[in-house]
């Protein structure tokens, strides 16, 4: 994750939970069904979970409630501080990101993340998935929820729609961050030994479920 993204999350930590409730009209559709999205990721994950981009701990909290062992990774100190306010004392959230992190001592059967994988370029995504393939055994899962587009036309259409609606910040996000198309992600996962499926949750967010073969 680049320094510019990290700075954004340092500033956003105090208001993030308010943002995901849909109070910001510009991002309302991005976060529509937020609780169900998190619940779906938690339900699909295994029992020993490595979570990237913990943020304020909303997904982590659901995983813990389901009695799953969670190893959290979050690069923003401010976000880590917010997450620890709502999580049990035994939960450890370490500094790191999708590519640079301390691997847990225990066995991992699932790797999860929500609203974060798009901070990596496509080549970085491939590097990350390659690394996760070395962590997971056969049958292990990657379960990510993130903005994904069916194809480049759908991507461009959403940018143009955001401009028409004068959603300036959303349009800028779509243009400057690294949102992938399904064919690119499918190639990345399959190349690294995973079968992958996509389930749409709202106009932006899909659940990406990849199982190691």
Gist?
The protein has about 210 residues and is of the alpha/beta class. It is about 40% helix and about 20% strand.
CATH superfamily: Vaccinia Virus protein VP39
Q: How much of the sequence is in beta strands?
A: 15-25%
- By CATH reckoning, the class would read Alpha Beta
The arrangement of helices and strands along the chain is: HHHEHEHEEHEHHEHEE
- Could you name the CATH topology? Rossmann fold
Q: Helicity level, as a percent range?
A: 40-55%
Radius of gyration: 16 Å
Quickly give the structural class: alpha/beta
- How many angstroms does the end-to-end distance come to? 28 Å
Inertia-based shape: globular
Task: Calculate the mean pLDDT score and round it.
Answer: 90
